[in-house]
Every structure is written in C-alpha cells, then in structure tokens.
C-alpha cells in the first residue's frame, strides 16, 4: 500500500474520487490548527436531511416541515437513537503532532490512513507551544503551562508574568532540541540508515498526517470526548476546528442537538439526583453520608454553583 503524499497545502492530494467532494462547499478548505497543523475536509456524505430521511424509514412518513425535521433530529439525539446519524460520513485530512495523533488514534470507530515515515522522509516540522501561529489558526494558541494541581493530566492556566517570561525561554529550548533531533535524523539518513530507523530520534512534537473517515455518530462521540475540558488543549483545538468550521456548517440541526443534549448537558449519578431532588424540595446543601467522595461533592457544588451550608 502506498502512503499518500505529504503535507504541504499545495501538494496535498486532490480527492476527486467522489462526486460529493466536488459538490460540498467546504471541501478542500484548510483550517489551520496550532503552528503548522490543519484540518481539511476531503469529502462528505449526507446532511441533516439524510438523518431525517433515514429516521423516517423507521417512523414512517410523518412530518415533513423543517421545524418538524429539527424536532425529529433533537428527539433522535436526546434518546440516543444513533443509527440515523451513521448515515452521514466525513473524510478529513489532518496534519497534527505525533503526540496528538497518538490520542486521536484511540478512537477505534473510524478509518485512518497515515503518512508513512518508513516510505518517505519526515519534514522538519514540529510543534512548539507559544510559538506564534502560522497566521491562519482559528482558536487561541495552546500554551506551555505549569502542571495543574487539581487535574493530574492537565496544565494550569494561571501564570504570573515572570513565569510567562520563563515559559518563552523554555519554548525556545524546546524548539532548539527539536532542530537538533532533526539534524541528527538527517545525519543518520546521509549515513545510509533506513528511514524506518532514523525516525526514532524525532520528537513527539513532529507533525504527521492522516486521512480520517468517520460517520457522524462516531464523530460526535469523538468530539464529545475531545472538546471536554479534561482533554489535552492541543487535541481540543483540533476538535473545536472540526466542530465549528466543518460539522456545524454541514449539519446545523444535528450540531445544535449535539450541543444541547451532549456538550452542554450533564450526566448525574444516583446520589446527585437524590441531592437535587432534596434541594428542589427546600433541603439544605449538606454533603450526604455514605458513598459520596469529597471530590464528587466539590464537583457537585461547582456544577450547580452551590455553597455548602456552614457546619456551625
Ligand atoms: C480526557 C481523556 C483522558 C484519557 N486518558 C487516557 C489514559 O490515561 N490512558 C489511556 O490508555 N487512554 C486514555 N484515554 C483514551 C480513552 O480511554 C479512550 O480510549 C478514547 O477516548 C476512545 O474512546 P472510545 O473507546 O469511547 O472511542 P472509540 O474507540 O471510537 O469507540 C466508540 C465506542 O465503541 C465501543 N467500542 C469500540 N471498541 C470497543 C471494544 N473493543 N470493546 C467494547 N466496546 C468498544 C465503545 O462503546 C466505545 O465507547 C483518555 C481519553 C480522554 C478523552
């Protein structure tokens, strides 16, 4: 199997294998992410209407007005009637750092074909947090933050000015280390070492590329997990780009329902439901006895902007 050729905007393969690719307005547009990355829609299948059409196979002809289509899509999303969303597909071309790709490929319900660094040489392109954007990035730049004390997997937001200064020096050192790794990579290649081995000296920040195809149901699942504040900032920027620049324009009603019933909704535990029921009936904000950890309690208070009743 031949890998697709790389990277660069102009030499990116033009996918003309599908007639939809030519018809969909966003096809081919590059949306910049991070300093060198991008997301590009290669092809798409379906629309809000296709979701409705599939659903009507199960529900009969029923309603037909746009307002009723919207209500049907919201009903499907709310009740997790997922299969109509699977009738739509998106094929994306994504350029991203290897460490982001590693998180991305955990989503098994998509098809993927990646640039082969065994077959072709890697370009000297790598990600450095805080490097100025290439000019076309859409969302706020990811930053080199301190280890968060609250979130063991994340970074903290609040840096003093002095720390920011230190941060940019660290960014410069990260950049320098990556350049050195690439210099050694080229040296290994010049000495005749195979590409598949020479690449092992390259940093996780090196950019790779893949084609990625998912149906809308699985794509929403990916977005739900990767738009969450617990996801790493870099992959979140990709998820934001995909959602806001590609999915929302192509599937406005499905995206609205996804936002309302997934992104901005909350899952509640049995304990939280019991607490809320008590509060609605005029109960006090007191941590219940039993199986409700301090962390869970704090999350509950934060989620509903509540203050615990003073013990005294
Ligand atoms: C904030 C965050 C932190 C994470 N931290 C870590 C970490 O520290 N270490 C780590 O290893 N991973 C980590 N992950 C990855 C995570 O565990 C999942 O692998 C990843 O999010 C993909 O989710 P998924 O399996 O639901 O998606 P997909 O692979 O797309 O699957 C979609 C759904 O299909 C079903 N499915 C797919 N394959 C199977 C299967 N083999 N068996 C049963 N059901 C299946 C499941 O219902 C699944 O939810 C993290 C993810 C996030 C978002």
Architecture overview:
- The chain is an alpha+beta fold.
- It has 2 domains: 19-263, 2-Layer Sandwich (Gyrase A, domain 2); 270-303, no CATH class.
- Helices cover 43% and strands 11% of the residues.
- Strand 1 (30-33) and strand 2 form a beta hairpin.
- Strands 1-2-3-5-4 form a 5-stranded antiparallel beta sheet.
- 26% of the residues are buried.
- Helix 2 (48-59) packs across helix 3 (66-78), helix 3 (66-78) packs parallel to helix 9 (252-263) and helix 8 (233-250) crosses helix 9.
- The structure holds flavin-adenine dinucleotide.
- Flavin-adenine dinucleotide (FAD) binds next to helix 7.
In sequence order, what are the helices and strands, one letter per element? HEEHHEHEHHEHHHHH
Structural class: alpha+beta
Q: What is the CATH architecture annotation of the largest domain?
A: 2-Layer Sandwich
Strand content: 5-15%
pLDDT average, as an integer?
Answer: 84
The share of residues in helices is: 40-55%
Give the spatial strand order of the biggest sheet.
Answer: 1-2-3-5-4
Count of helical regions: 11
Which molecules are bound besides the chains? flavin-adenine dinucleotide
Number of domains: 2
- Unreliable stretches (pLDDT < 50, length at least 5) are 1-19, 132-140
Find the count of extended strands (DSSP E, 2+ residues): 5
């Amino acid at each position: 199997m031949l890998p697709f050729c790389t990277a660069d905007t102009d030499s990116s393969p033009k996918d003309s294998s599908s007639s939809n690719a030519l018809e969909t307005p966003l096809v081919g547009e590059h949306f910049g992410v991070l300093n060198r990355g991008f997301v590009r829609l290669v092809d798409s299948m379906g629309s809000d209407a296709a979701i409705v059409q599939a659903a009507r196979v199960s529900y009969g002809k029923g309603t037909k007005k746009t307002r009723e289509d919207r209500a049907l899509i919201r009903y499907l999303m709310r009740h997790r009637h997922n299969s109509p969303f699977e009738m739509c597909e998106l094929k994306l071309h994504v350029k991203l750092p290897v460490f982001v790709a590693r998180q991305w490929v955990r989503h098994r319900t998509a098809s993927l074909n990646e640039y082969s660094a065994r077959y072709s040489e890697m370009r000297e392109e790598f990600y450095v947090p805080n490097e100025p954007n290439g000019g076309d990035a859409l969302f706020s730049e990811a930053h080199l933050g301190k280890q968060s004390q609250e979130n063991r997997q994340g970074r903290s937001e609040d840096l003093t000015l002095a720390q920011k200064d230190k941060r940019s020096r660290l960014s410069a050192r990260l950049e320098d280390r990556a350049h050195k790794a690439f210099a050694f990579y080229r040296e290994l290649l010049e000495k005749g070492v195979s590409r598949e081995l020479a690449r092992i000296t390259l940093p996780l920040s090196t950019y790779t590329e893949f084609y990625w195809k998912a149906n809308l149901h699985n794509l929403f699942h990916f977005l739900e997990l990767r738009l969450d504040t617990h996801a790493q900032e870099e992959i979140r920027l990709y998820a934001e780009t995909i959602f806001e620049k590609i999915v929302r324009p192509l599937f406005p009603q499905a995206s609205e329902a996804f936002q309302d019933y997934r992104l901005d909704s909350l899952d509640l535990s049995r304990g939280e439901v019991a607490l809320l029921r008590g509060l609605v009936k005029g109960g006090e904000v007191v941590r219940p006895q039993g199986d409700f950890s301090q962390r869970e309690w704090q999350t509950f208070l934060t989620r509903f902007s509540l203050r615990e009743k003073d013990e005294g």
